[in-house]
Specification:
Elements lengths: L12 H22 L4 H8 L4 H5 L3 H11 L6 H16 L11 H5 L6 H10 L15 H17 L4 H33 L3 H35 L1
Length: 231
């Protein structure tokens, strides 16, 4: 599979499979942390052949694939009913006093901290149309921000320079936001649920984000070295 990206954007083989998969992983995490696991959503991902590619990157991804892809169609309605209840218990703000899926709650900031995050989104030219009134520092919105930046970096940039700028934004957002609070978020989520769906998602998130930052840094260094060699 050839990865179609910005013209002249160098993608060595070592980074190609990761770039093919990371947007899908961010979208999967966004979907399940941001939406109730309705039958249509579960069926969509359990039938998605690309989930196998994404699952290769983390043990949590493999857990999730085994869970989603091993269910008999007749079992899906009852499974979705159970997971919907778990989503409401875990991911709805105020549903649990000990678990809040927002950055501010995990770094000891007030709820108004979401204004800081909204400024980050605005500076990148991104405004979210939030159907369920999620705060800007909600886990699903922060993950969706990364998914949007990934798509723009690879497919909607018009130059290597603009792609590099989007790469830098992603590195900074991982360092300054997501990786500052998701380890604690995942630890609390692991302790709060027995759901195979949310445990798989938590394990996947916990493994994937540090690896994604490592790969972004490595690819950036490769691009910079290539640019230096041309000069």
């Amino acid at each position: 599979m050839t990865l179609q990206t910005v013209p002249s954007l160098n993608v060595p083989e070592a980074f190609s499979r990761w770039l093919e998969s990371r947007g899908l992983i961010y979208q999967l995490l966004t979907d399940f942390f941001g939406r109730k696991p309705a039958l249509s959503l579960v069926a969509q991902w359990s039938r998605n052949a690309q989930i196998g590619v994404a699952a290769e990157m983390t043990e949590g991804g493999r857990e999730l694939k085994r869970y989603l892809c091993s269910q008999e169609p007749k079992e899906l309605p009852s499974i979705c009913e159970q997971e919907n209840k778990e989503y409401k218990r875990l991911m709805t703000e105020g549903a649990m006093n000990t678990f809040v899926p927002r950055e501010a709650a995990h770094i000891g900031r007030t709820k108004e901290f979401c204004n800081v995050i909204s400024d980050v989104y605005a500076s990148a030219g991104i405004v979210f149309n939030k159907c369920n009134g999620e705060a800007d520092d909600h886990i699903a919105i922060e993950l969706e921000f990364m998914a949007v930046l990934h798509e723009r970096m690879l497919y909607n940039s018009f130059s290597v320079r603009s792609a590099m700028e989007l790469l830098d934004i992603q590195v900074a957002f991982l360092e300054e936001h997501l990786l500052r609070w998701t380890p604690q978020f995942c630890h609390k989520l692991n302790a709060a649920t027995n759901s195979p769906l949310y445990l798989g998602l938590s394990h996947m998130l916990e493994e994937f984000l540090p690896k994604d930052l490592e790969m972004l840094r490595g690819w950036k260094a490769t691009l910079e070295n290539g640019a230096t060699a041309v000069i």
